[in-house]
Task: inverse folding
């Protein structure tokens, strides 16, 4: 079986992909990590060979990838870093992708899977189900913009037909080990201080992390998926209010209160002109993109990946929330 390397193996999604691949116990696995990466997410990994690299330095990557046949790239600068300039998002999302592509051994490489996001489509005012042919969005967050720039790198690669690249586009992922923003949200739900902006009736496609990891692993090594993009999403699409209410119910939280959309959006635009250090507490988290999220629909078609690799999501949103809340409690986040 081919040797598979996961870039970002210690991260939220990368660690779940490693675990999924370990279940098969047939692949040689390589975890590409930084020297500072925290490996708590991967405690039972005797069968994984960790290779420390500098993702911004081509030399260390070339050596680490010389015998690798399939690469799964999970590197991203997440939405928590929207306060950083676009240049930083480009460096991490597109720049590291370019380095990984340039460092591969074309004589050994079977497939390069780039993990993008359905966020490249942007949110929509109407509740349309978006497929993989949907154009890139224009009103997007810095995180989504960085992912679009990375996909442009993939498009160039396809045009030159140099390497066999597949793009996986998960929607919002939730589950154990997601620590970016979620502990704060859950604690606010639990304390009753979380506020829904607007009516919360927009559709919000979310998928449990194990199902996303399974979908990506099904793409690996499948020749007919090369040159294609796939929405790796579940079947359920709750409203924003339904999703957060389910979390609140599992936490035993009071009913969620709401605030009007328009004044919050106006405040978000004004806060753009206030330096981050001068924004007290949660005001630093308010941005037009984050506020706009509550008003936009995000619904995605998963028929393509189902037909290509027989992907079948297994974990319901309710069950996934139960598992996630249990993990957050056991690990002291709530």
Result:
């Amino acid at each position: 079986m081919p040797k598979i390397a996961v870039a970002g193996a210690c991260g939220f999604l990368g660690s779940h992909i490693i675990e999924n691949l370990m279940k098969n116990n047939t692949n040689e696995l390589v975890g590409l990590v930084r020297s500072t990466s925290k490996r708590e997410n991967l405690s039972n990994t005797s069968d994984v060979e960790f290779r420390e690299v500098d993702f911004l330095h081509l030399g260390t990557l070339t050596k680490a990838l010389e015998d690798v046949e399939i690469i799964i790239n999970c590197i991203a600068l997440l939405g928590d870093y929207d306060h950083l300039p676009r240049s930083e998002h480009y460096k991490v999302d597109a720049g590291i992708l370019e380095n990984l592509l340039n460092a591969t051994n074309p004589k050994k490489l079977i497939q390069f899977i780039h993990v993008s996001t359905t966020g490249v489509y942007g949110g929509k005012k109407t509740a349309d189900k978006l497929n993989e042919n949907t154009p890139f969005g224009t009103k997007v967050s810095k995180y989504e913009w960085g992912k679009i720039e990375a996909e442009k790198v993939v498009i160039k690669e396809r045009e030159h037909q140099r390497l066999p690249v597949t793009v996986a586009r998960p929607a919002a992922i939730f589950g154990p080990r997601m620590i970016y923003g979620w502990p704060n949200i859950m604690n606010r739900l639990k304390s009753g201080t979380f506020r829904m902006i607007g009516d919360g009736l927009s559709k919000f496609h979310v998928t449990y992390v194990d199902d996303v990891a399974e979908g990506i692993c099904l793409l690996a090594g499948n020749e007919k998926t090369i040159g294609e993009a796939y929405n790796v999403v579940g079947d359920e699409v709750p409203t924003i209010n339904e999703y957060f209410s389910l979390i609140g119910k599992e936490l035993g939280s009071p009913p969620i209160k709401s605030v009007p959309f328009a004044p919050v959006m106006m405040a978000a635009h004004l806060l753009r002109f206030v330096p981050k250090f001068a924004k007290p507490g949660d005001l630093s988290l308010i941005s037009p993109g984050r506020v706009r999220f509550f008003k936009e629909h995000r619904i995605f078609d998963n028929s393509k990946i189902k037909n290509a690799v027989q992907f079948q999501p297994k974990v319901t949103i309710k069950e996934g929330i139960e598992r996630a809340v249990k993990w957050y409690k056991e690990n002291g986040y709530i």
Q: What stands out?
A: The mean pLDDT is 91. DSSP finds eleven helices and 13 strands in the chain. Residues 142-160 form the longest helix (19 residues). The CA atoms of residues 197 and 294 lie 6 Å apart.
